[in-house]
Design brief:
Blueprint (H helix, E strand, L loop, with lengths): L36 H5 L5 E5 L5 E8 L2 E8 L5 E3 L10 E6 L2 E6 L8 E6 L6 E2 L8 E5 L7 E6 L8 E6 L5 E5 L5 E6 L5 E7 L3 E6 L8 E7 L4 E6 L6 E5 L7 E6 L4 E7 L8 E5 L4 E8 L3 E5 L2 H13 L4 E7 L6 E6 L6 E6 L4 E7 L12 E7 L5 E7 L9 E5 L15 H8 L3 E6 L8 H5 L8 H15 L3 E11 L1 H12 L6 E5 L5 H6 L9 H7 L7 H7 L12 E6 L7 H13 L4 E6 L9 H19 L10
Parallel strand pairs: 30-31, 30-32, 32-33, 33-34, 34-35
Antiparallel strand pairs: 1-2, 2-3, 3-4, 5-6, 6-7, 7-8, 9-10, 10-11, 11-12, 13-14, 14-15, 15-16, 17-18, 18-19, 19-20, 21-22, 22-23, 24-25, 25-26, 26-27, 28-29, 29-31
């Protein structure tokens, strides 16, 4: 729940043996160029390419007035039209409503109360569709066969839950389709846009609800506790069965066909012995299940459909040495949007026509970055103190001998998510400044099965933190890390882990950076956003109950142990953060300053859970660069005093 980053997939890492480790001092074979900070954190040249349903237009996001806005151009032409004029904040996302109209969402100052807007491809027909204060909008189904309407969800009636509405995308007129009785956390339509499945929760148990038609009442077909998942993915093409991701009776999540009427699992579609699988791929045009996507140490595919396999093979042959992902298709699948990835750049986007083999490069997303100057992101594996196999990633500075290096430990947010292999501007920035980056998928991370995930329950500051500490010790034992020059930095839950590391293992870290992190679990639980209320009991089960587990939560909340923190700390916070309120940062800063501990505190009044505006990112990472240079001796650009 508490995570900075919008999207992550699942992975398993293999053992990484560092070559060339020897005793002696750390000497660089080649001193890499100090890459300007802004090159890592500026907005991409263009991003988020999609193709219209009829395949005739391409939409994308591009900076204008230092904000990402939505643009469109016709296939085969270079002239582009800017559709949006956001100046205060990036457009958060967009989608095709039909072949001639686009919808997009935007919040205010990071409050995450997203409003829905619509505009035609020629720039006419602008309409704010959901002009409601303090209301969060989202799309349930774009209704591909209905050019005039779509299904959306709003918490307008009750801020805790979302009702489903049919909205006219020209006028904004709303029609209530389904009122949430107070416990529905998810809605699902069939392939014709009919609302036929819902998921309820009381925070501990979940039920799958089903109805034959929209005129029928929902009925319960299955109930599980939150540890045992039965996650509906989408309907079969005959609208009678569901594809689901489930770990019922097993540790690793797998994909099944499910008889929703009878409430029982049918055919096993795909399982992996080491990692969870939930990414099912399909061709709507051909009505075929084409394959699955999952992540071991890197993202992987397994294709069932020969045509989809041939498409992937053709693209990989044309774009060698890259991870190649099909991110979108026209409805008839004659035109395909393709994205390439690596661990060293944001990659590129292409337009591909399978019938002719025509491949057009649309854009390099970060052409100012030279991949030859970037560091390798290597999968690692080590054993925790209690015998658990842990996975993660290690990035070492390019050109440096892997001996006695300064290290930044970077726990991921969530904590119920995971780190994945790929390009991360933070990681490459830190490595370019001469430091290694250690990322650990500690117990409680997702993707490695039910038991590994559940092993993190009520272990904030406990065994989850031990896993991070064990990773640091492993790196020291390898001779890679200088034990006197180790920092811990994280965002959201990672910010909590940074504070916990400084408080509970103060001898381990030379300094720490807390970015929108939790300092007091009691106040975190008191200030959850209203639309998280359905998950409150689950939070109590996974983190701790503020009444029943009061002593535990006091024991693992860093603010109550500020007297143990002695290392310098940098704290960064968005004033409008709806998930981790500003009071979380205020508390720890005040507690440390009262004791005379050095704390730098950066607050942005126009940000929420993480800094999205480009100038705010630049400011934060300049402060980070200067902070790490002072306390770890790393490289930095010539900067004015903080």
């Amino acid at each position: 729940m508490i995570t900075q980053k919008l999207t992550a997939f699942l992975a398993l890492a293999a053992l990484f043996v560092v070559p060339g480790v020897s005793s002696g001092t750390n000497t660089a074979d080649v001193q890499p160029r100090l890459i300007p900070l802004t090159d890592f954190f500026r907005n991409p040249e263009t991003a988020n390419y999609t193709i219209s349903p009829d395949g005739e237009h391409i939409a994308f996001m591009k900076p204008w007035e230092n904000r990402l806005n939505v643009y469109v151009r016709k296939v085969g032409e270079q002239a582009e039209t800017r559709l949006t004029g956001a100046r205060d904040r990036d457009i958060a996302g967009y989608a095709w409503a039909n072949k001639n109209r686009i919808v997009y969402v935007q919040d205010t100052g990071g409050d995450e109360n997203y409003r829905l807007y619509a505009i035609d491809l020629d720039g006419s027909g602008y309409k704010e569709l959901t002009p409601f204060e303090g209301v969060r909008a989202g799309i349930v189904d774009p209704l591909e066969d209905n050019d005039a309407e779509m299904l959306i969800r709003l918490n307008r009636r009750d801020p805790k839950v979302f009702d489903v509405y049919r909205i006219d995308i020209a006028t904004g007129a709303l029609e209530l389709v389904a009122e949430n009785p107070g416990n529905i956390s998810e809605w699902l339509t069939d392939n014709e846009g009919r609302l036929r499945v819902a998921v309820t929760t009381d925070g501990v148990q979940s039920s799958l609800l089903y109805r034959e038609t929209e005129k029928d009442p929902f009925r319960t077909v299955a109930t599980t506790d939150f540890k045992n998942t039965l996650d509906p993915l989408f309907f079969s093409f005959d609208h009678q069965r569901l594809y689901v991701a489930s770990n019922l009776g097993r540790d690793k999540t797998a994909v099944y066909l499910y008889d929703v009427g009878a409430g029982r699992l049918l055919d096993l579609v795909y399982e992996h012995p080491e990692v969870d699988v939930s990414g099912l791929l399909r061709s709507k045009a051909r009505k075929v299940i084409t394959g699955v996507a999952f992540t071991t140490d890197k993202p992987q595919y397994r294709f069932f459909d020969p045509e989809r396999r041939r498409l992937q093979e053709a693209l990989e042959a044309r774009l060698p040495g890259r991870r190649v992902v099909v991110t979108g298709m026209s409805r008839d699948e004659r035109r395909v949007i393709v994205r390439t990835f690596s661990d060293k750049s944001l990659g590129a986007c292409y337009l591909y026509e399978p019938s002719s083999g025509r491949l057009e490069k649309l854009a390099e997303l970060s052409p100012w970055l030279n991949e030859a100057e970037m560091a390798d992101v290597q999968p690692i594996r080590f054993t925790s103190r209690d015998g658990l196999t842990l996975h993660g990633y290690l990035t070492l500075p390019k050109g440096a001998m892997p001996v006695n290096l300064p290290i930044v430990v970077n726990p991921h947010g969530g904590p119920w998510s995971r780190d994945v292999w790929g390009f991360d501007p933070e990681t490459q920035f830190i490595a370019n400044r001469g430091m290694g980056v250690l990322q650990i998928n500690f117990r409680g991370s997702t993707g490695y099965g039910k038991a590994f995930w559940a092993a993190g329950f009520k272990q904030w500051g406990g065994k989850m933190q031990d896993d991070i500490s064990d990773g640091v010790q492993w790196l020291v034992q390898q001779g890679i890390a200088d034990p006197k020059r180790i920092a811990i930095y994280g965002a959201s839950y990672g910010g909590y882990a940074a504070l916990a590391g400084l408080a509970f293992t103060p001898e381990m870290y030379a300094c720490g950076i807390d970015y929108v992190g939790v300092s007091n679990i009691f106040t975190l639980l008191e200030t959850l956003p209203p639309y998280w209320e359905l998950g409150r009991q689950m939070m109590y089960e996974m983190v701790g109950d503020p009444v029943k587990d009061r002593e535990l939560l006091k024991q693992v909340s860093p603010v109550f142990h500020a007297d143990r923190i002695r290392a310098p700390l940098l704290v960064a916070q968005g004033a409008n953060d709806p998930r981790v309120k500003k009071t979380e940062s205020d508390q720890i800063v005040q507690a440390l300053r009262q004791r005379g501990v050095a704390v730098e505190y950066l607050v942005k009044d126009d940000e929420g859970h993480g800094f999205h505006n480009e100038e705010n990112r630049f400011h934060f990472y300049r402060r980070m660069e200067s902070f790490l240079a002072r306390h770890l001796g790393s490289r930095a650009e010539s900067l004015p005093p903080a």
